[in-house]
Batch of 2 targets.
Target 1
Amino acid sequence: MSTLVGTPRARSSSVRVATALLALSLAGAGSAQPAVSAELQRLLGAESWQLDCQITFTGSSSGPLDGLLGPQTYSNSVTLEHTARYAIGIRSEGASLSMQKLTAGLAGASAAEAQKAMMDLIMQTDTITSWISGPPIPDENASPEQQTAQMLAYMTQPIGTAKIAVVETTRGDRLVSEAGTVFKQTTRRTRSGTHNVVGGGVQLMLELNAKTQRISFMLPHSYTSEQDAKLAEDTTTVTESPPGAAPQETREHQDVPVLPVQMSIVNASPGSGSGLIIDDAFTLVAGKISGGGTVDATYGAIPGKLVYRYTLTPH
């Protein structure tokens, strides 16, 4: 997956740098931060957030194909729908994602420029709060076996569903077998199904800036399928031998394992790898923050559009 994975105690180097600089700045500065509304203060003080997201990817590709038996053409299409609910519940004051973005954007900057940019961000600590997801704190009284079981339960807990439909078609109008037989053949293979999505240890970050009224967070555009999840694969082959003869059709069916999702965001944000980082202005409606959008993405080698919707609920 294209999201960060780790333990709830893991921190990026940029966050550690920010913490050190914050301690220095607070030792020598006592200026008050701009006041924010009571409603925004409540958001800054939230212990955790619930992220509900819906991801839809639709893509296709086609072109010539150099087959072993002769020239062919191919066309592929994929439709994927993924819904999930995540808990982001380890809170800390100060920036996280914006610090990562700032660090990534400071390549080539002088030491003085980098320090000033970081200090400007660090001095907003009273109006910025971050949260990170992670497993529950292990029970100190539990045995190693019990702690392992607790972690496994967290990793494999269903958090949503995924529905996928893949269609692959190849066609050769004049193919030649090893025996020299000329024939025409079209093969259409479909893989489809719905299965559960599990947490899989994905680690998410969320940052709220009350001064600018912006929220930034990692949106899991990929997912981890439940163990032993299957898709139904159906293959239909239509052959004319020689071309123009009566077509002969064969059909095959089997259940195949779900492969890991190979999804990447085109023109991903600096510091996000191939993931999707949302940075939106927000308005609280009925106690929640909602939004969405469309980005270019690829599923394997298939280009397409990824449409996302999200709702964040503070707790």
Target 2
Amino acid sequence: MSTAVLAPDRSALVEQTGTRHNLMSAYTRLLGWPLIIKGSAVMLPAHLGIVGLSLRAGVGGEVNTVIERFGHHSPVISVPGTPTRWTFLTDDDDCTPGSIPFGVDLLAGRAHRIPLPPTDLDGDYVRWVNAPDPSRPIAGLSQVLAAVNQVVRPRRAR
């Protein structure tokens, strides 16, 4: 069986032979992420230091550009569905979000589990848009929310 695991010397996901257990071990060892495997799903609990911001993929592309322009790094996953959504993984930097724009969901707290690649959701797979990079810190929730607001607020004014 072929699964994707993180290469320790680069951020890109590479194909290696292994099992979901090996993948979970790589995520935990290289990134320090505590994960849950449930059936064919690899899930990140959203209450142990990492949270997610989920939004439409089209807006997500613009947000990702702003985050990179700020010099930050946020791993991003593409979650299949109608519409496809991107989830930005962020450090829970104790930010108390004031107002989250319409169409943006904060995935935080014990009730939320974020699917990670290669989770199969009804025959379509969660995939990395920006793979995590063990050598770079993950942007904080406040930084990613600032990027979201920079993109979304001007769109509303149009």
